[in-house]
Amino acid sequence: MIKRPVFLVTGADLAPQALALLADFDMVYAGKTPTEDDVVRLCKQHDPVGIIVRYSRVGAQAMDAAPSLRVISKHGSGTDTIDKQAAAQRGIQVVAAVGANAAAVAEQALALMLACAKSVIQLDQRMRAGHWDKATHKNVELEGRTVGVVGLGAIGLRFAKVANAMGMRVLGFDPYAQNLPTFVQRADWSSILSESDVISLHCPLTNENAHLLNASSLAACKSGVLIVNTARGGLIDESALLEAVRNGRVGAAGLDSFAIEPMAHPHLFCEEPRIVLSPHIGGITADAYVKMGVAAAHNALQILRA
Ligand SMILES: NC(=O)C1=CN([C@@H]2O[C@H](COP(=O)(O)OP(=O)(O)OC[C@H]3O[C@@H](n4cnc5c(N)ncnc54)[C@H](OP(=O)(O)O)[C@@H]3O)[C@@H](O)[C@H]2O)C=CC1
Ligand SMILES: O=C(O)C(=O)CO
């Protein structure tokens, strides 16, 4: 029997619509949260022509373990867990399904911003404990406030558009984006820090921006700033953020991404009611899951068939 080419998926499953596109391939699944070693082992065992990255790191060792590997296709947008330099050196192409989960993540960022501004989780917990804080608590009104959007790509621009429709002034920081829409006012980093009432991160994690928000940048923020991070945990120094929430420099933080995932439990973030948490789920709605799978399969096939 002729052996069919293999796709390795670093996750437990793919949407049926994506699988239909890959019907000519044998599929191998690395499980729910595979380690880099799992990926290396499966590459050695199955020599895939393509890897669809849902979760996990894919480094040089995995690439070297799969001589047939030609494409690494991200089931989503951020490619920070893929060693792109090692891939380029080996002639392996890296592609991403940018845009497939943009609506989902922009909505998650808006949900976290609103949860922070309106103390949604905190007040819910207080009421369940028998408190009625109407006379003592004041929420933040977002209309007329300034939001600093960091990264003006598929997600950042969608988020910015809705924020602007809510009456917010939108400042945007992105050294690479061109032709910004009129509702975004381009700003330098120091203006983002000094003028924003809300800062929402929507840029990739790269070598140049690790700990973009750290003790010194947080100290330059407006007192009470709301921080939203649906991008990557590594963009924030988490200890500095925790300290800034505790001392009130940061009014509240809504986080969907963490330096280490899954986030450890117990974690100091869980002790702070003004930190709202979600388990890196922004990009995962039922609709986005299908769109990401289809785009990841389609992108990989385009490369294999070129
Ligand atoms: N929470 C979740 O589930 C999800 C999180 N994400 C995260 O969101 C990020 C953005 O996604 P998406 O909008 O689809 O990606 P895009 O590539 O469409 O947009 C990112 C934008 O940020 C720019 N950028 C790069 N470096 C910096 C920097 N140092 N400062 C400011 N801007 C920068 C990019 O420029 P250039 O194109 O030149 O690099 C690009 O314009 C992803 O990289 C990922 O980390 C994405 C999807 C799901
Ligand atoms: O698309 C991405 O980058 C993600 O984080 C998916 O969850």
From TrEMBL:
Pfam families: 2-Hacid_dh, 2-Hacid_dh_C
Tagged with keyword NAD: yes
Keyword flag Oxidoreductase: yes
Domain D-isomer specific 2-hydroxyacid dehydrogenase catalytic per the UniProt entry, residue ranges: 13-304
Classification via InterPro entries: D-2-hydroxyacid_DH, D-isomer_2_OHA_DH_cat_dom, D-isomer_DH_CS, D-isomer_DH_CS1, D-isomer_DH_NAD-bd, NAD(P)-bd_dom_sf
PROSITE patterns: D_2_HYDROXYACID_DH_1, D_2_HYDROXYACID_DH_2, D_2_HYDROXYACID_DH_3
Keyword tags: Amino-acid biosynthesis, NAD, Oxidoreductase
EC number: 1.1.1.81
Any one Gene Ontology molecular-function term assigned to this protein's record: hydroxypyruvate reductase [NAD(P)H] activity
Domain D-isomer specific 2-hydroxyacid dehydrogenase NAD-binding: 110-282
Family listed: Belongs to the D-isomer specific 2-hydroxyacid dehydrogenase family.
PANTHER family (UniProt xref): D-ISOMER SPECIFIC 2-HYDROXYACID DEHYDROGENASE FAMILY PROTEIN (AFU_ORTHOLOGUE AFUA_6G10090)
UniProt name for this protein: Hydroxypyruvate reductase
Provenance organism: Comamonas brasiliensis
